[in-house]
């Protein structure tokens, strides 16, 4: 097996291990056992626990929030599609999303928290761009787009951690988290 393929395989196994058992299971020895390879093989790629966790966190963004189809011609439609994709990831979490949630709950080391925060900031970048486009088009309220994107991401993560809730609403009110969040951002109703 080629080196790049082996490393991808080991990282996928590490993500599965963390998603199932938590970050405490993210050791080279436990990964070797889980992947069915020798500790020497794992050590070639991840000499210690720190290197393994750093590699898992570095590759987290791509597997956390899949980028949805953004064919809507207007900024509001694209923003709605992106938020819908984020909430879909929260409703049916990918492996990466489950690792991210574990990290939020389990990681306390300042360096690892900083790496996790870098992943989270990276996850806000598409939201920031769409909020800015909506502001330029005059359909999204003027606000700091980075702060708004961060708050939206926190809402999605909170939704994932607490689970979807059926909140009673009067007829005609927004009942979906996405509609409620989007309504607060827009200058007028969609």
Task: Note down, in words, how this protein is organized.
- The structure is a single chain.
- With 190 residues, this protein is mostly helical.
- The protein has two domains: 3-55, Arc Repressor Mutant, subunit A, CATH 1.10.10.60; 61-185, Orthogonal Bundle (Tetracycline Repressor, domain 2).
- 69% of the residues lie in helices and 0% in strands.
- The protein contains ten helices and no strands.
- The N and C termini lie far apart (52 Å).
- Mean pLDDT is 83; it is low at 171-175.
Give a nutshell description of this structure.
By secondary structure, the protein is mostly helical.
Structural key phrases:
mainly alpha; 2 domains; Tetracycline Repressor, domain 2; Arc Repressor Mutant, subunit A; 190 residues; single chain; 0% strand
Domain count: the total is 2
Q: Please give the count of helices.
A: 10
Instruction: Say how many strands there are.
Output: 0
Order of helices and strands: HHHHHHHHHH
CATH architecture assignment of the largest domain: Orthogonal Bundle
Mean pLDDT, nearest integer? 83
Percent helix, as a range, is: 55-70%
Strand percentage:
under 5%
Shape: elongated
Distance between the termini: 52 Å
Quickly give the structural class: mainly alpha
